[in-house]
Structures are given as structure tokens and as C-alpha cells.
Amino acid sequence: MANKKNLANSVLNAPIGTSDTSLTVYTGDGSLFPATPFYITLTPNNKWSRKINSEIVLVTNVVADTFTVTRAQKGTTAKEFTYGDLVANGIYVEDVDIHSQDAKTTPVDADEIGISDSAASNVNKRLTFANLWTWIQTKLSALTNVKTYSWVKDEDDFVSNDDTKVPTQQSSKAYVDNSLKANVTTYPIGSSSFFPSGYRNNSWITFCRIGNMVFVAMKWVPDSGTLGSGTTIDIPIPSGYIPPANWSLDHLLLRNESAFGRLIIQGASGSPLANSFRLIAPPSGSPTYLGGSFFYPINTTVN
User: Domains of the chain: which residue ranges?
Assistant: First the structure.
């Protein structure tokens, strides 16, 4: 937008032809006009400004009362003007119609927009994007109960599955905590409901489901003595942690003090035992425990 100045008007101090690129205003009137660049309208004396009789020019430099100009601007054509014809720093459609302006897709902090200042009797003022961003940040930091807004969902179980809302921090934490609790099962030392007799005093096992995978960590310790060579222990897999029916794993090695045991995981079909783990102590060495950790899939087809 070109510069403006109130009552920046004068008359030509000499005639100009259609090819002239400078003009002179009345003596001393050069100081009435704004800093360059600015537009002026040239109109014959005692005539209304019309397209057929007027011309808009762009002033690019001012020296005293002499203006350097670019002719025939904003859809007008170059015309001849004479001494005493009107020179006016006018208001043009681009000054008031934002839709006629070039678009800017990446504003910077120093860019400005106009506002009507309600705190100062609606005086027109300019607002920089830097000041606008500061105002937005202040407003956002003042929000104290966002869950009252329609775009926020405070729902611990996420049951609505709404892709147009954002969750609160509390509901996100509750959902994650509850999901982890629901997918972790631990049988601690002494669990008679899980461990067979002779393996309860020091044995433990934990199942943790993460998506379509199950992580298992365990340690099997006989209540007394050692595991005899080739000892077999069958462990039923709890509901919710069952591998696919067509899936099995053999020869996974479980570390003990000095030897390796054997683990067989079996889905719903096949042998040695459906939906179970089978631990087999090493053929020699009489270890005092079998333990380890491993992953296996769940609810998916594995070939």
C-alpha cells in the first residue's frame, strides 16, 4: 500500500505531455505530500475526476516541488495536463478493498494489520503480528478449565473414539494407566492359584500384553533342592495372553546358573499341551532355577 497524507493536494506549476516522467507542483507544496512511494491523481482544473479526463501516476522521488513519476497507473492512460490542473494524493480501491491486494502466505512478526481500538474511542491503529501472537499466548495461558470447551474430551476410557476432539492430560494419563493395569498380570511368590506344589516359595511370573505382542518374565525355583535333569513343568497360559492357534515355538533357551533349559510355547492346536508353556530342565547339571524373558505374538496369524 502506497503512502498517504491528509490534504496532500496542489496544482501543476507547468504543463506536461503524455511522455513526460516528471512534473512540478505549485511552489512550496512539495512538502505537503507523503514520503515516496505514493500515488497522485491528475485532473483538469474545474472538472470532476473521471477516467476519461484524469490520470493516476506513481511518484517515486521528490526533490523540493519536482516529482519523478511513473505514468498511466491503475488502469488509466497518459494524458496532457496544463498549468493549474489539480494534483491530489487520493484514496484508491486497493487502499480499502483487501480482496484486491496480493496474498501473503507467510506473514512475519513485523507485518501489520489495521484495527479499531475500542479502548480509544475506536481510533484506527496498527497491530503487528508479533503483538498479535503475544496476545494469543496470553489468552491461552489464562485458560484454567479447558474441559468446559466443546473441542475438549475429558473421558478416562476414550470410549467415544472421537477424532474431532483433544483429550485432557488427566484423561490421557488415566487411559494409559488403566490400559497398562488391564494388560499386566503378575503371579508373585507364593501364588498357589498358579504355581504347582513344590514351586511356590520362590517362583514368580509376569505377563504383559503390548498391542499384539506378549512379554513374559519369569523365574521357576523349586521349594527345595534342585531341578532334576530333564524335569518337565507345564504352565497353563492365562486367558487374554493366548498365542494364535497355529503358532508354536520350540528351543527357546532359558538361562540358569550353568546350563540352558528348553521352552516350548504352544497355541490351541498341537502338542505337547494346548495353550501352555512347557519348561524342560537341561539333561544334566541339576540347575537350581529356570528363568528368563521372551516375547510372543497374540491375536494374529503367524506362519
Answer: 9-96, 152-181, 184-297
